Amino acid sequence: MLTIEHLTLQLPYYAPWWRRRWAEVLSDVSLELHPGEVHAVVGASGAGKSLLAHALLGLLPEPKRQTGRLTFHRQVLTAARQRQLRGRELALIPQSLDALDPLVRSQRQVSWAANRAGDARANAWQAAGQALTHYQLDERSKQAFPHELSGGMARRVLVAMAHVSHAQLIIADEPSVGLDPQQRDRVLDALAALARQGKAVLLITHDLRHALPIAQRVTLMRQGRCVETAFASAFQGDGDTLATDYAQALWQALPDNHFGVTPTAQAQNVA
Amino acid sequence: MLNAYRLHHAFADQTAVLDNVSLSLEAGEWLGLSGHSGAGKSTLGQLLAGHLAPQAGTIEVDGEALPRSGLQPVQWLPQAPELSVNPRWRVKRILEEAWTPPAELREAFGIEPGWLNRYPGALSGGELQRVCVLRALAPGVRCLVADEISSMLDPLTQLALWQALREVVDERRLGVLVISHDAALLERLCPRQLTLSEGRLSPSVRHGAQSA
């Protein structure tokens, strides 16, 4: 559905005397998303995961230098097409709950999203109500302002907005951060359900362990590069079918596994 | 060493979030605390560290009540480090607020010299969290309350943080209360674990201790 080929992104920073320099924040990133699949992108903070999401949607501010090719449904994804498809074919579930308008009740916000995707106003209101019910928000929460919702509920309002937009590709940026286990599982289940409907879901997270049950494939990112793309099933046992030391070290470091650094990882100083 | 006796704490709507809770933490002990969101884990942590005053009950460290001012012997490490630093202080001033950590420790916690001149906003959450943990290890501190300090970290950074902390804690025989939703992490770190539910503490149901 979406193909990313050799995406390289440079953003400016300003050295002393206001000379502009370019920092390479994404280097030669390639991946492919398929319909019906949850594809997790996992990495430490600063690995470039969120920048990747924003680059896919064309949300990065100028100036920037971007090379490589993005293809969506076999058509090249240009800036103009990104603008046209955002909120319709491509949806972002942003990391920050500040993305909700603090002065607008949940159902109204979700109906805006439906409206943008082409629903007539009356239908949009109804679709918004149904979507919120689908994500287990009751009548009271539908008429609540964002500050009256818990973190998990607000997150589900954002998921509902992606749901009503009928988007084929959904990019979820750290959707489980700051949620307790029950809320987290509900949000992740909601994403898995979207994939089962035939959508492609790009799940951006630092939480490898909880991405694995719902993801089919996992791409590990580190310092702006794709280290490895593996099937989620490769993360099991000692992880010895994983191709790179970084992937093995990440897997071994989980408290459910060795909670230790493997000797090879230490030797190469991957941590 | 740290003894809390019959703590009671209720919020404005009268529901008791802690109801006659007693707890003791020995020097060098790692104690795990789990419970649902809103069960009162963080409230208990803040009471122990003197950030909140209990409505009833006593808290003592080595037989003495918590001091009213100065360095607190129990340090609370919150989940969100960005909320526990002054955004207008540089990292060096934040780190050296209570003591000057030696360079070896800075290195063990992966704090790079280049960060010291920056403002906290220029560090990531994981980087700032390490600064806050090291800041809290001043001499005179006896206990730490680590409240979900690694939930925003990737597995390798999480492991590095706990390894560095474990070295210092075991050397100085500090007591550590680890608050977490992550059962596997508690299992790794803490031989004894408690669950807080409906205002009461009970021993956690566990499947045998392991050590890393």
Automatic annotation (TrEMBL), chain A:
KW Phosphoprotein (keyword) present: no
Any Pfam family matching the protein: ABC_tran
CC terms in the record's Gene Ontology section: plasma membrane
Location of the protein in the cell: Cell inner membrane
Bilayer topology term: Peripheral membrane protein
Residues covered by the ABC transporter domain: 2-248
SUPFAM superfamilies (alphabetical): P-loop containing nucleoside triphosphate hydrolases (SSF52540)
Signal sequence region: none
Gene3D superfamilies referenced in this protein's UniProt entry, alphabetically: P-loop containing nucleotide triphosphate hydrolases (3.40.50.300)
Primary location group: membrane
Family from the record: Belongs to the ABC transporter superfamily.
UniProt protein name: Peptide/nickel transport system ATP-binding protein
Source organism: Vreelandella subterranea
TrEMBL record, chain B:
Stretches assigned to coiled coil: none
Residues covered by the ABC transporter domain: 2-212
One function term, GO molecular function aspect: ATP hydrolysis activity
Xref: Gene3D superfamilies: P-loop containing nucleotide triphosphate hydrolases
Annotated TM spans: none
Family: Belongs to the ABC transporter superfamily.
PANTHER family per the UniProt record, alphabetical: D,D-DIPEPTIDE TRANSPORT ATP-BINDING PROTEIN DDPF-RELATED, TRANSPORT ATP-BINDING PROTEIN
UniProt-recorded name of the protein: Peptide/nickel transport system ATP-binding protein
Organism per entry: Vreelandella subterranea
